Amino acid sequence: MTSTSVWLVGAGGMALDYLKVLRALDCQITVIGRGEESARKFEAQCDHPVFSGGLETFLSSRPLVADAAIVAVGVEALAATTMSLLQAGVRRILLEKPGALNRTEIKTLEAEARARGAEVIIAYNRRFFASTLAAQQMIKEDGGVQSLNFEFTEWGHVIEGLTKAPGVKEAWLLGNSTHVIDLAFCLGGEPSELQAFTAGALPWHPSSAVFAGAGRTVGGALFSYQANWGAPGRWGVEILTSQRRLIFRPMEALQVMRRGSVGIEPVALDLALDQAFKPGLHEQTRRFLTGNLDGMCSLADQVRHWPLYEQIAGYAHA
Question: With contact defined as beta carbons under 8 Å apart, do 219 and 235 qualify?
Answer without folding.
Answer: no
